[in-house]
Amino acid sequence: MEPSRRILIVDDDAASRALLLRMLSVAGYNCLEADNAKDALTLIHKEKPDVLVLDFKMPDMDGTEALKQVRSDPNPNIAQLPVIMLTGHGESEVECLQAGADDFVIKPVKIEVLRARIEAQLRVHLLRLQLQEQNKALEEWRRTHERDLAAARATQQALIPQKPPEISGWEIATSYRPVIEIGGDIIPRLIDEIPVIALAATQAEGITVIKDAHELKVKETNRIDTVVNELTKMGANIEATEDGMIIHGGTKLHGTNVNSHGDHRIGMMLAVASCIAEGETIIENRDAVSVSYPQFFAHLESLQQ
Fold first, then answer.
1. What is the pTM of this model?
2. Cα–Cα distance between 7 and 16 in angstroms, integer?
3. pLDDT in tens, 60-100
């Protein structure tokens, strides 16, 4: 246990306060004390203890009122101070927790119980601080990443001439199209929606890259190959990769004969594709959709009306 851990004990009863002070000091803590809530609030700002042990019932300002002031402090280090409330039998533990206490101990205090709860709150507080630091680092990374992307976008756009060169017999045009990448930890949560996401990507601006989706190969069909093959039949500019697909957006789809291959997700994706394709689309094995959504075609038709 670190010797620098400081505990502020707040109790208007001198005997109880002295007993706690002695027991926790013997246990290795550096203890501070106050006999009223107002002095305790001053000490919290001045000494910045690691844990506050606060009596529930005190004259003038009781423990719950003092705790509410701690929790509303504009300084987050004070507002998040771990607080253990001391309560007597018959007093409301619920009221303590509702006021913002992290834990409570019933009097007469058993030192082993109080020590265990102090150590637990110190661990939780340390984890909270670590999480906050990680969130700060992640936010800084995000801002840096966005700045880098913006700089890269500006650099790439600067390479494109504002006015294409004029060469006799040639027509020259330029185009800048962003790339959207879908992969990583989000893929398992989207795995069943990837067929319809791929369809949406055929109509989006730019290039969409779906990766880390190996699981698609072991569904009802190899959905990577099936999505690519069936949408290609409809005119999509899409290619398979080892773990996903690359879709070039902005393509017009046309009706043709396609096949769900007995895969309900493929069947639903093709049915939606038929709604935006020019001409008639015939879906073979469309009954596969009923495995998970028997009313799918009726609902889709009602949406088109």
1. 0.50
2. 15
3. 888 889 999 999 999 988 998 999 998 876 667 788 888 88
